[in-house]
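Q: What would this complex look like in 3D?
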Amino acid sequence: METNWKRKHILSLRDFTPAEYNTILQTAISFREVLSTRTKKVPTLQGRVVANLFFEPSTRTRSSFELAAKRLSADILNFSPGTSSLTKGETILDTAKTYLAMGADLMVIRHKNAGVPQAIAAEMDRLKVKVNVLNAGDGQHQHPSQALLDLFTICSVLDLDKPRIELLKGKKIAIVGDILHSRVARSNIDCLLSLDTQVHLAAPPTLLPNFFSKKNKNNNLFLHWKIEPALENADFVMTLRLQKERMTEHLLPSLREYHQNFGITRSRLQLCHPHVKILHPGPVNRGVEISSDLMDDPNFSLISQQVTSGVAVRMALLYLIGLTHDDK
Amino acid sequence: METNWKRKHILSLRDFTPAEYNTILQTAISFREVLSTRTKKVPTLQGRVVANLFFEPSTRTRSSFELAAKRLSADILNFSPGTSSLTKGETILDTAKTYLAMGADLMVIRHKNAGVPQAIAAEMDRLKVKVNVLNAGDGQHQHPSQALLDLFTICSVLDLDKPRIELLKGKKIAIVGDILHSRVARSNIDCLLSLDTQVHLAAPPTLLPNFFSKKNKNNNLFLHWKIEPALENADFVMTLRLQKERMTEHLLPSLREYHQNFGITRSRLQLCHPHVKILHPGPVNRGVEISSDLMDDPNFSLISQQVTSGVAVRMALLYLIGLTHDDK
Amino acid sequence: METNWKRKHILSLRDFTPAEYNTILQTAISFREVLSTRTKKVPTLQGRVVANLFFEPSTRTRSSFELAAKRLSADILNFSPGTSSLTKGETILDTAKTYLAMGADLMVIRHKNAGVPQAIAAEMDRLKVKVNVLNAGDGQHQHPSQALLDLFTICSVLDLDKPRIELLKGKKIAIVGDILHSRVARSNIDCLLSLDTQVHLAAPPTLLPNFFSKKNKNNNLFLHWKIEPALENADFVMTLRLQKERMTEHLLPSLREYHQNFGITRSRLQLCHPHVKILHPGPVNRGVEISSDLMDDPNFSLISQQVTSGVAVRMALLYLIGLTHDDK
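A: Here is my prediction, written as structure tokens for the whole assembly.
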């Protein structure tokens, strides 16, 4: 594969270019093909070490990155916060530097605080070491690999063989739910606003503050405190996970009321474009963000495809950033 | 290896046929031979993903399945319940479907509730996907791989080179201990009753309710509330792990009294056949289920052989069910 | 590589010979070279199983051993104490014997109690099985692989291409901090005292009892209750991690006072030899054992090199003890 990829770390989608999105989509197609072969493996990252530094625990995303790294033939080191030196007072940067000294070539980082992957990447650059950092979710800030697998999933619906960003032109995409606290929403908004789509956000006012309208630079972002105008003729509906903590924080009256006002149901789907598809980053609270039968309906739900896309897209991301020091 | 294996999932031994038992034994012999070579590995499951979904934690069984899968060259994903989406409200079926979407080909499932592996297998079949499910212990229901490694261990004692079920004909096998709560006992009872053996159960009445006699369809099951008649001339004695919780549940007066009445000791062994062998699924409470010195006596104890058999038998099981979609 | 290595287990450095140290250093050089190649892997331990039995949790040391074992192409089984049979009443020796029966060839053992790796090694020898035991830290007793990676790091400073113990002759090495509770200190003291160095221990009296002077058989051990005489003209300063528990145990007034009296700072470094280097086994409490800026100064700090050395030295140790049954 030839490519002009230059980006060393994937930390946020705020400044991604259309060309970069297309390179990722094309690379992910290649890896989707690898995954359809019998052996499913390529020697791309042989001898390299991928350190999964999940300071915030996660089974789903960690497993996806782990499988992606294995299929690139990398060696994997899993950092488990529960049993770590962190409880012994070591700083996060020192933990990262320990894995660097051990031989980590790529670091996949999740942390409950925004900015941690950025800080580690900056430290690696300051040290002038050939280490790539991939943000696997930082606080309420960004979760780029999730938005990129969403992009790959959506573009694959529009053209399975040649997913590319040009297909998105003029599409209406609704993002529904707890936007305020969602790093998935922020990464998706940054991505989609730059790609000639119309992005409609819908949530109760407590979960969709007005300051989100600052992102509206290309005149293609719309905020709604009711779900109906967002769904109207929408091509894709992205639902967001609702943390049950929001109730105890008095941001929501009840799950039942949330579902009544913002849950995706078969009758609400009538508002959308007839070919509408639904996404959810998982794990789903059945009957809250989305009605249970709709979640399982392959005519509408892309949830399984998102998980499947995740492995191919994460292989692409590890491969691409790894290219930036291929003389290693 | 040629075989007629047709069974897609291994969930329970209730309906296993003698031919299936012999296929498993023969396949396990082949893998026992692989394990005696220097490299110890075969490429059988290369490119396939084995997902260890241990909703109930276990080090021993998980390690055994993990090593079996590694030696078949599979990729392994470990699901760790403590740090999982389950705590976030995801259903068990949705967790399994996430691993399916990620690319899992075989799922090894342990859960504290009976029926979970069955439910996951039924869902996979409903979805018409080529995924195999292996029950690694569900509640107090079944633990088929444990009973199968016990079978392999016993038959290997009777003929090391050609373990086969015909060797069991007429053998008396005692199962002693907390039968009521034991999935190991249930799987072993189902297996042994169908194989021309005489199965004698022995336990205090609180741990051996009368309803177990319903399993006596071939007139070869015997229930005892004292240990002596079960041990008399027994060829094999299977002891079961005693959970200390049984005391707080008022099912047992004390560990000491249990040992006095049902513990396997050297003097009690006098009652058995001179070549008697003792099994225990582990982990053992030394001096409770079995006296400490007897446990370490290689003339009587098969405990180490059971663990060793476990790897070969689990390789056989993963291999055989994997055959059912070899066109994959 | 040719070698006369005979030692089956690495449990303590108390009786190591200079020839053994040099063999380890030379072997580690070879593996340091392997780590600088693109694939970074050798097939040395292919088919062998390394069981990491970390009864006391540790991310740093376990990751280091895991990476070392992977790069020797071994299969790895990780034992996680939280989810283990230990909570079910199994003895430590029985846990080790379970991993033996499963097929473990090498056991890397950490335990909060002194003597556990020794007890497991003795049991393996009694059973006459070809299993190697490596102590990865036992209570306040020994941590041989840490002292050996310190040795490799120090000797590499003195001659990068040919690290060897002869380079240490006459060097003054200060060990500063909580010596009483440190297995790292004990292993380093045993190693360095046998190698013609001058070893100066410095700590408050509560953390450096007089009985350490019993180790002074070659007249090269010196105890100080102030830091200055230890640092004076020192070639290397080994700082030790200070557990915060020491305060609640009334062994120390405060971290601030400890740092004031025993912390390594730029001004204290004036006392040392101009080429002085500082070591710390990690994780570091910045501003306690060592001032934060000094820790990051590559002119003085060897902390990163220690971590890097760890992988090569642990590869060497696993390789060397594995040689003792190469007919396996």
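A: To summarize the key features: The domain at 144-307 of chain A is CATH 3.40.50.1370 (Rossmann fold). The first helix of chain A runs from residue 18 to 35.
Q: Very helpful, thank you.
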